[in-house]
Design goal:
The structure holds two protein chains of two kinds. The longest helix of chain A is centred in the middle third of the chain and has 37 residues, at about 180-215. Helices cover about 60% and strands about 10% of the residues of chain A. By secondary structure, chain A is of the alpha/beta class. In chain A, helix 1 packs across helix 3 (about 40-55), helix 2 packs across helix 14 and helix 9 (about 180-215) packs antiparallel against helix 13. Chain B has helices at about 20-25, 65-75, 85-95, 100-110, 130-140, 160-170, 180-195, 200-235, 245-275, 300-305, 310-330, 340-355, 385-405, 430-445, 450-469, and strands at about 5-10, 45-50, 55-60, 115-120, 145-150, 170-175, 235-240, 370, 375-380. Classes of the chains: A alpha/beta, B alpha/beta.
């Protein structure tokens, strides 16, 4: 996994934060199945998921960061080369008047680098050990303050940048800042890698310049210091410095003679033993220092930088690999990718409304002066004869001329009997069909009414009497919905002399 | 080995709650449920799928229209009791595609193709003998059958129904589609399992996945509620105004915006919970005259008087927190302070709660700084000690209602606004309250994002509360 991928993952998770949960689960589970999520490592799984979710969104915040980071690395490398080269040119500057001071060279090109390497090593120590080092607390506080000031400065700079992409990058980075605890190790090695790149370039620049000046100019080296250091001590120091290559390149170790011969006093503007007679010319003798200096730069500058740079690359990769990816959002994503999706809704739904719509506002022509009726008890309605008579009398003030049953469990015979009875009636009496209001008007009763109409005149009245038998022992009117259901149901027959009535009037 | 996928046709007379049962079992609030009959015109399949694998299928069917006549036809065409299923098939062949017995043909088709039968009756209405025609037809099909006594409205005639149903169905269950919870659904599935041996494995898998899904939803609900509280407790807003401008002029607008944000954030969390439990169509209109308590404004007086902790509980929590701090001081001087720290800390803690809990609204603070020559004023985070408890109480109340809301319900959700017992947090045990109070304090101090342990602790506490609801 790369840093760019982590940034893009986090940005995508932020985007998903506001998305619909059901859609997210469906989307991610589908991807999870394609990726065989349960058997794939988390990091690989999330990256593959990201590719599918993001599709062709370029440049992504991660890509922007990557580009920025790469350019910053190049810039630092270039700056390192210039500064390294400049520093080397400066400490090796020789115009023939005063020789190059070896102490300066060692202090600037080796000493300072060793100091930064020491800080790096200190920083790499566990915090508990680091605290034991005197002054480390104050030092780190100082660094922290500096970094705080730096981040504020960067914030201000970013806020003033007009570029749309950079602003977006900044916003995304701000969000990721919240996750520092998770990504702290990655951030650390990202920064170290950049600084070591600079350090490496510094050493390359310094080495190249040294080699160039040594090869193409006539340098004279000397050592001088205000400190009271005698030749022997300085020789010991140089021998110690030369320890790494002492056995491999013996010529790179300055001899005591060379140390003695190249001591220089500014006051006298001359070498310490300038009067001594030697067979070798002075310039050649003092020029022997170059190998020591180059080897010092390689051993204490270039090689440690290469090692730390390589180490930082490895550590960054390890940190990226070791990322637990177990924050709440990642856990949730992993769950969405791996947990089987439970779906209970239909794949395709039939939303079609009933095709047969009827005019439920039919105008009924209902005028009757009759005082008697024919009553039909429909569908096993639970009423005895007396109850029927009473209910009809109370509601319509009718007496019942004939009472028959129809629509029951075994209704074929009873229906036929009822229809025959009605056919034989000579009087034009209203037909009252008593139904239980909480039942729906089924095809059975509608067919019966159709058959009934064939036995009657077109203008004979048929009334569906709605009885709320569920309300007993007290008779109550059917509810509004039940009335509406029956009104709609019989409207299918489009019969102007057919209507539904409550058998108990509403108060 | 091919496992037979169980299919269940939900059968019954028109308007007896077939679609309600399907909506509840399939967690589908988009199933059309209308008291006016005829909304289900064709058979609709509701597959119970785990990923793309179907474990079970529910089939919503049109209702019986003329069962007695159909039964009469079947009897007329019967040769022997051994070929009754063939007679039903013959009926289908005879009438399918004609104008007669349209709905009967549609509902019989899946049964003859192997679906089990879930026969639904309305137990709120009395039993009538003509229902036996439907039951008898279903018996003729020879398919595994179960009867469900649903209840639409008041009244209970289950005792009348049971003896009749027992004669025709191997399993009879009461199942009120509008008021069942998750465990009732699981129980029903367990009953399905007993109907037909070859279906057992598939139904077992369905039950396992359903339970797993239920647990997952609880965990996700915890995350949603925890994030809501985190945002509500840490949200602040600041604006820069001209140096000579009076901050009070911006007070109303600024405070309104602040509280509106909190309201919207709460709405967002509620929507997530509703979607989590597949309630996609739930109505949340705010302009009704009588609104359920959790539809009332987050900052309404009634909300603050009915939800959250009681003043007594709040002051007790404040006093405990203060006394703890004071106790540390006492301990550091080896008790030489004669517990003055504990006593004073407790008194101060309680008093501070009393002081801060009087205001339901957050107010703007005085100028908190100057930036680029402008005065910076800030509002939030909300300081009232009862605020997190109110937010949590409302979230839990809403959660509980959504979790237990059957998908067949179409009316707006209501809670009794008069019931003092609706405070969830007030009924928590004191150790949970104390632990939650610590979490709230930590969130207010530095935000929970800083601490994974704290977040875990908060999630654990919430999970326990939600689990016990």
């Amino acid at each position: 996994m790369t840093v760019a991928e982590i940034i893009d993952l986090e940005v995508q998770l932020i985007k998903d934060h506001d998305a619909d949960l059901i859609e997210l689960r469906q989307r991610d589970r589908k991807i999870g199945q394609q990726l065989n999520a349960a058997n794939t490592r988390r990091g690989e799984l999330f990256v593959a998921w990201l590719k599918q979710v993001r599709k062709n969104e370029h440049p992504s915040p991660g890509e922007l960061f990557d580009t920025g980071y790469r350019w910053l690395g190049r810039l630092l490398f270039f700056v390192g080369l210039i500064i390294g080269s400049g520093s080397a040119a400066s400490v090796l500057s020789y115009n023939g008047a005063k020789p190059v001071n070896i102490v300066n060279f060692l202090a600037v090109l080796i000493g300072l680098q060793l100091l930064t390497i020491l800080f790096f090593l200190l920083n790499s120590l566990p915090a508990s050990l680091r605290r034991c080092i005197p002054g480390s607390g104050e030092f780190y506080n100082f660094i922290r303050e500096l970094s705080y000031l730096f981040s504020r400065l960067m914030g201000k700079i970013f806020n003033h940048l007009p570029s749309k992409h950079l602003n977006r990058l900044w916003q995304d980075l701000q969000r990721i800042k919240v996750k520092q605890k998770l990504y702290g190790s990655v951030e650390k090695w990202l920064v170290i890698r950049l600084t070591q790149r600079f350090g490496l370039a510094f050493n390359i620049g310094a080495l190249a310049t040294c080699l160039y000046l040594i090869t193409f100019s006539d340098l004279a080296f000397a050592w001088n210091t205000t400190l009271e250091i005698n030749n022997k001590t300085f020789h010991t120091i140089t021998r110690t410095i030369a320890t790494p290559w002492r056995t491999i390149v013996p010529k790179g170790v300055p001899s005591l003679d060379l140390v003695e011969q190249s001591r220089y006093f500014q006051l006298d503007d001359q070498y310490f033993d300038t009067q001594a007679d030697t067979e070798i010319p002075k310039a050649i003798v003092v020029g022997r220092w170059w190998l020591f200096l180059i080897l010092s730069l390689i051993s204490y500058g270039f090689i440690p930088r290469i090692i730390i740079y390589t180490f930082s690359i490895i550590k960054l990769k390890t940190a990226l690999m070791k990322l637990p990816l177990k924050s709440a959002e990642f856990e949730s994503l992993f769950d969405r990718l791996t947990r089987p999706l439970l779906q209970t809704r239909p794949i395709e739904r039939d939303y079609s409304a009933p095709s047969d719509q009827f005019d439920t506002n039919f105008k009924y022509d209902f005028q009757t002066s009759s005082s008697i009726c024919i009553a039909i008890q429909w569908g096993d309605i639970a009423m005895d004869n007396d109850q029927v008579f009473e209910l009809i009398r109370n509601r319509f003030a009718w007496s019942v001329n004939q009472l028959v049953s129809a629509g029951g469990f075994d209704y074929i015979k009873s229906n036929v009997a009822a229809l025959e009875m009605i056919e034989q009636q000579n009087d034009c009496l209203p037909i009252l069909i008593l139904v239980e209001s909480w039942e729906s008007p089924s095809t059975a009763i509608l067919n019966f009414i159709k058959q009934l109409r064939t036995k009657l005149d077109a203008s004979d009245h048929i009334i569906i009497g709605l009885v709320n038998t569920a309300s007993r022992p007290v008779w109550q009117p059917p509810n509004k919905i039940e009335r509406q259901v029956w009104k709609n149901g019989i409207a299918k027959l489009a019969d102007p002399y057919l209507r539904a009535e409550s058998m108990v009037e509403e108060l | 080995m091919n496992i037979e996928i169980p299919k269940f046709a939900v059968i019954g007379r028109v308007n007896k709650g077939k679609s309600s049962i399907v909506a509840t079992l399939a967690e589908d609030d988009s199933v059309i449920i209308d008291p006016l009959p005829g909304t289900t015109r064709i058979c609709q399949e509701f597959p119970f799928r785990i990923d793309s694998k179907t474990l079970m299928i529910l089939i919503d069917t049109p209702g019986f229209q003329d069962a007695p006549r159909m039964l009469a036809w079947l009897r007329d065409n019967e040769d022997s009791v051994t070929n009754r299923r063939e007679v039903v098939a013959k009926f289908l062949r005879t009438f399918q595609g004609t104008d007669e017995f349209i709905d009967e043909c549609r509902l019989l088709e899946p049964i003859l193709n192997g679906a089990g039968i879930l026969y639904v009756v309305d137990g709120a209405k009395p039993f009538r003998k003509n229902y036996e025609a439907e039951m008898e037809i279903l018996r003729w099909t020879g398919q595994p059958r179960m009867a469900l006594i649903n209840k639409i409205g008041e009244g209970d005639h289950s005792d009348e129904w049971r003896p009749a149903l027992d004669q025709y169905f191997s399993v009879v269950r009461s199942f009120n589609a509008h008021f069942v919870n998750f465990w009732d659904r699981v129980k029903l599935l367990e009953a399905f399992r007993e109907l037909h041996e070859p279906w057992r494995e598939s139904i077992n898998s369905s039950i396992t996945f359903l339970k797993d899904e239920w647990q997952r939803r609880q965990q996700e609900a915890v995350t949603i509620i925890a994030n809501l509280l985190l945002d509500q407790l840490t949200y602040e807003q600041s604006i820069a105004i001209e140096t000579n401008a009076d901050p009070q002029k911006y007070k109303n607008k600024f405070e309104t915006e602040f509280h509106d944000y909190l309201r919207k954030r709460e709405q967002k969390a509620r929507k997530s919970i509703e979607h989590l439990y597949h309630h996609l169509k739930i109505e949340t209109e705010e302009d009704e005259l009588v609104r359920p308590i959790f539809e009332e404004d987050l900052f309404a007086q009634s909300t603050w008087s009915l939800l959250g902790l009681t003043p007594k509980q709040l002051i007790a929590l404040g006093a405990i927190a203060g006394a703890t701090v004071g106790g540390i001081l006492d301990a550091s001087v080896g008790g030489a302070s004669f517990f003055t720290g504990t006593i004073l800390g407790g008194a101060l803690g309680g008093a501070s709660v009393f002081y801060f809990s009087t205001n339901r609204f957050a107010s703007i603070e005085n100028i908190i700084g100057v930036i680029q020559g402008k005065k910076l004023i800030r509002i939030g985070p909300h300081k009232n000690p009862n605020f997190p408890w109110i937010v949590l109480d409302r979230a839990l109340l809403h959660y509980k209602n959504i979790r237990d809301l059957a998908h067949s319900r179409r009316e707006k959700l209501k809670l009794s606004t008069k019931n003092e017992n609706q405070r969830v947090v007030a009924s928590l045990d004191s150790s949970t309250r104390k632990a939650l109070n610590q979490v709230f304090s930590a969130i207010r101090k530095k935000g929970i994002k800083e601490s994974v342990d704290l977040k875990n602790k908060f999630d654990e506490l919430l999970y326990q509360i939600i689990h016990d609801l």
